[in-house]
Inverse folding.
């Protein structure tokens, strides 16, 4: 889609992006002094190190937890009332908080975004997106009562039959991949647990939702 | 084991620990100004908010990724050369880094701690430990070549037959749970994917490895 996705004029592959070329941690969260980028003793990577107290500050991926809610052979989707991806459809999902389990976080996000009280049924997928430091953890769930309505971050919520899922209006590559895998599993009559990595194709923009590859797909 | 684990003299249950009673983020990582704890608009939890630039700083759980390496009906364990749990046995595992997938991180940790080059076979378990903000992601893996040796963080590495796993000398509750589940699966002839939460029993110390409960165990 994006013209930036074409590498026709430069046949040499682009180098992979550096893991830590700079850090978001410019000042020490513990003492407030400026940090510097350096490789600590015994380490191999550049880290933000406090110039005063010497603390090393690591940056780790974040877990995004969500639910694939099944009801009457349909799945529950929410249309986003916030950026990014305003107006597009997603599974209820959000960042896991310290102090809760992934299952608790997925239930909480479903309550917040779809006002739906759910029971977690089983883990369904882990989808890592290394480029943006996110790992999606998706659970199958069911409605405890057949009630839902849009929470403050949703324009609307709706149950979609599997043939009617709006694949052209989904918010994130992780949601596309999750729902594709789910459809395949339902059609085969064998719902599995899936692990995979979602890699953006080199040279494509972050807004180009469909320019990704799925790597290391493993299922149980 | 620990006398502190008994609640016989105080029948009322202890309240759960507050999720964020204080923050490790005392200074803004972006501008260096002091933070204050407050509930942002539209939020429900206390967050560290910069008193100068107003940025909200969230604290999220960290992913620990590791491998359960199978070889000749044995599993590969490493004896820790570092604290915590110096001298105790563990699966090769460590914090996931930004820029790598969980499978890549698990392979990297296995190379670092056991000098073992492995192929990831399948996801085996996710074990959340909400109290300490960690989520363990464990993969089954196999040795590409039958070679391993202790890396800088290991005293020794060894293959253990399943009946000889040193359950009394394991380093972490997550490792105990993972290996117990694996043994049960192998004995039943059906190796599954497991999700569960590990909760410390109220009143027990962090060093009391065996005072935990497994909640929400789901398998696929």
């Amino acid at each position: 889609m994006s013209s930036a996705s074409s590498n026709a004029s430069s046949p040499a592959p682009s180098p992979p992006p550096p893991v830590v070329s700079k850090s978001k941690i410019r000042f020490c969260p513990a003492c407030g002094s400026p940090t510097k980028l350096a490789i600590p003793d015994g380490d191999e990577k550049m880290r933000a190190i406090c110039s005063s107290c010497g603390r090393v500050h690591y940056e780790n991926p974040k877990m995004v937890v969500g639910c694939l809610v099944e009801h009457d052979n349909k799945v529950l989707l929410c249309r986003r009332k916030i950026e990014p991806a305003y107006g597009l459809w997603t599974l209820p999902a959000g960042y896991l908080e310290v102090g809760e389990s992934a299952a608790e976080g997925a239930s909480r996000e479903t309550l917040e975004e779809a006002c739906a009280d759910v029971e977690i049924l089983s883990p369904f997928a882990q989808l890592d997106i290394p480029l943006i430091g996110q790992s999606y953890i998706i659970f199958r769930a069911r409605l405890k009562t057949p009630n839902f309505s849009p929470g403050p971050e949703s324009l609307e919520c709706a149950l979609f039959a599997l043939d009617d899922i709006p694949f052209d209006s989904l918010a994130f590559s992780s949601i596309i991949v999750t729902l594709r895998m789910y459809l395949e599993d339902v059609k085969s009559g064998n719902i599995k647990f899936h692990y995979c990595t979602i890699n953006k194709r080199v040279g494509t923009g972050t807004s180009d939702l469909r320019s990704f590859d799925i790597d290391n797909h493993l299922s149980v």
